[in-house]
Model the fold of this input.
Amino acid sequence: MRVTILPFVMFFMWMQGDVDSVRIVELRVGAHLAEGGDALLGCVFDLGPVALYSLKWSKDGKEFYRYMPQAVPQMRSFFVPGVVVDLNRSSLNTVALKHLTRNSSGVYQCSVYGEAPDFPTASRDKRVTVDLLPKTGPKVDGLKTEYHSGSYVDVNCTTTPSRPEAQFKWFINGRPAPSSYLLGPYLVLPTNMPHTYQAKLRLKFQALESHFEQGAMTLKCQATIPPLYLQETHYTFYDPNLRKNTTRAQKNRGEIASTTILLQWFLHLLLVIMNI
Ligand SMILES: *[C@@H]1O[C@H](CO)[C@@H](O)[C@H](O)[C@H]1NC(C)=O
Ligand SMILES: *[C@@H]1O[C@H](CO)[C@@H](O)[C@H](O)[C@H]1NC(C)=O
Ligand SMILES: *[C@@H]1O[C@H](CO)[C@@H](O)[C@H](O)[C@H]1NC(C)=O
Ligand SMILES: *[C@@H]1O[C@H](CO)[C@@H](O)[C@H](O)[C@H]1NC(C)=O
Done:
């Protein structure tokens, strides 16, 4: 207890009918973070008329950061497995973490304590999961160099190992492939990378004339790990017999496709920002 405060104790108790007005207004912590990345944890609080005594952050009940306005230094960090605090980028209501790993997953809690005599306190927590994102976009195996009307398509879409596994969708000319064309998803546990998963989705069908639009068939695989990862890979094949006066039409389609992807990314970013 801080001795200098004592003479004012009675005064404050009389002044404030309700010292329990302390509250955490907002905990800005992403529910999903990416392995290898950084994170900013934000704790917005309201102490009412009470001064701040200290603010603490803990993970799974172990304190890793403390801010005390009256202490020198004001900021201190403590060792907790999986938590690397970057003090240079931390402050009163923000803690910067770096080098996130699987061990950084857990329940993060911010607690604030008001000054003596009552040390009114409030805390709030949130579960954080650190995902391992694929290193690249989805990869397609088994593609032939060309397909025309009558050819059999039999390909698999996969990503490098991740945690959790990616989810896949196949599209033909921009429309979801019928479920009768799909096999899987198949899940593999990579032996050389513990705690990771690899999935693949197989697309198998006979290409017919109806699959070529103005002579072109576009196969697209989309891989997602919501809300952090969304990537696509696509290939376009031309059937020379069906291809008549198509150059102009295809050019337009290409433009539309890239707009759609941009839109998806924008929605995606919004979701990430909103921590959904
Ligand atoms: C933090 O700042 C101090 C002093 O400005 C500097 O010496 C140190 O290298 C910095 N640490 C990191 C990790 O950036
Ligand atoms: C996570 O923690 C386990 C057990 O403490 C340890 O063996 C492992 O090396 C840690 N992994 C990382 C990526 O820090
Ligand atoms: C796709 O995956 C399935 C299931 O693992 C496998 O049987 C098939 O041979 C694969 N096809 C290609 C082209 O890799
Ligand atoms: C294809 O293009 C040629 C030359 O541009 C034109 O004469 C012909 O009418 C077109 N055919 C069709 C089916 O649009």
User: Anything to note?
Assistant: Residues 141-142, 154-156, 186, 200, 202 surround 2-acetamido-2-deoxy-beta-D-glucopyranose (ligand 3) (CB under 6 Å). Confidence is low (pLDDT under 50) at residues 5-19.
